[in-house]
Amino acid sequence: MNIETLFMPFQFLFMQNAFFIVLVLSVPTALLSCFLVIKGWALMGDAISHAVLPGIVIAYIAGIPLLIGAFLAGMFCAWSTGFLSENSRIKEDTIMGITFSGMFGLGIVLFVAFETSAHLDHILFGNILGVVRLDIFVALIIACLIIAFFTVFWRDLMLFSFDPIQAKALALPTTLLHYGLLAVLSLAIIATLKAVGLILAIGLFIIPGAIAFLVSNRLSSMLLISVFVNIFSMLGGLYLSFFIDSAPAPTIILLLTVVFILVFCRKYFVDKRKTNIFISGVK
Amino acid sequence: MVNPKCQPTKKIKQMIDVLLEPFSYGYMNSAILVSTIVGGLCAFLSAYLMLRGWSLIGDALAHSVVPGVAGAYLIGLPFAVGAFISGGLAASIILFLNERSGLKSDVVIGIIFTAFFGLGLFIVSLYPMAISIETITMGNILAISYSDTVQLLIIGFVSLFVLLLKWRDLMVVFFDETHARTVGIDPTLLKIIFFTILSASVVAAMQTVGAFLVVAMVVTPGATAYLICDRFPSLILLSVLMGSTTCFIGSYLSFFIDGATGGIIVVLQTLVFIFVFIAAPKYGYLSARAKFKRARQGVENEY
User: Fold this and answer.
1) pTM of the full predicted structure?
2) Which three-class secondary structure state does DSSP give residue B176?
3) Are A22 and A126 in contact (CB under 8 A)?
């Protein structure tokens, strides 16, 4: 294998586009994942990403931009989860399961009932190699919005994620932060839709943050670590998938998982050694 | 010429013919039978899962079986075996990480199921196989083969049988593990039994409604019943009733709109849930509002 083969992926336009969109997406998803992991909203990402489906299908039927439909559906899911769990005695995760599976089911029924020309596969699993300039443009705008949101509010969000009660006591606009974070999440899911699809998007919203959580105790370094890990895995996964001829999105998720496993093992053995030293010290 | 008096009856007869048409096909009959039983089984489990806030483990298991299915196809094992193994593996990794990683349990669930699902898609993309990923994810009960029907019925009946034998012990374990231990029940053993049944029924439900919608089958019926009942036995009964009825009607209806059986079943269950949420006699939205109003009026009258 010579240098030329190593650089081969960069010669194709579709690969260039794919690399670019991956690079654009990696930063906002990584930032978001840290907050979701700390806040315990990991499955909110799961719920919203499933719930986006009926929005897309309805938007398709009605002829409005898919992004708007998807965003509204995502927000509806988040809002109705909040509403139902405030007004009933059922646990929130159960409510979440009901809401998103109901909406996903509706999306599938609509999809089958109205024969749309959209590929369900592409919505569910993404089509990263078919990314066009418009998709990159949309992703870039959404990414800028999200990064701006985090740069302005990250301290407020930090307090809100760790201790919502104190945030309220300090007169932070908690409702605004709550729905702001949800809106950002919906936007981010829409941006990743084209690249990795509904189902695997969740991985991007959990795994980088979880890896950073295992490594660091400070939010600021967590954010940095998760961004770096995400950029590395997304670019690396895409690059690798070109050579082993696999689907790019699952490869990216698998690479993230491998990093998670490595980090977890390291932490596991370090913890064990610490305990051993402690025990021998006690003896 | 047709006697005009006869026409309405003829029309009704035609309508009945149309309505009964699904039952005249063998595949519809077996689809309806299987999904009714699987629906009832999942609903039974949902009553327990909801108690512990484990609802989303069902979802995670359903996504996690995909690599097992793909792997089983690759080496020629039966579909259900691979699914069962990878489901069990995912469940045990979730439990392990929950104890050791310090991450919140929802994060752990999220990581494991995306990782497994990603692995499944990865395998499928490397080795294109005859099974389409859509059958795994969407289910395809209408095209179910005879051997699969038998397999699912066996899974269904055995699991229901075990649940009927053990439901009381399981209830004790799920409500209060310490108490279970003091009355001589082994919680670990019962939990293993429970998760085995859960994995088996997730595999079964996957063929009915597909991996994505399994979560509704193991969450919605229990939650709906919880809004009505206060006693656990009646909760189970109502939940099973709701699960199997919606599955029956859903798979029946799917005959008329060409497939999407899973989607229809789940939409039906969600509609029932919404109705119950609004109108339930004691814990419904309307009655809660009325109670609130009455309480406020009582306070206002006092002053």
Assistant:
1) 0.84
2) coil
3) no
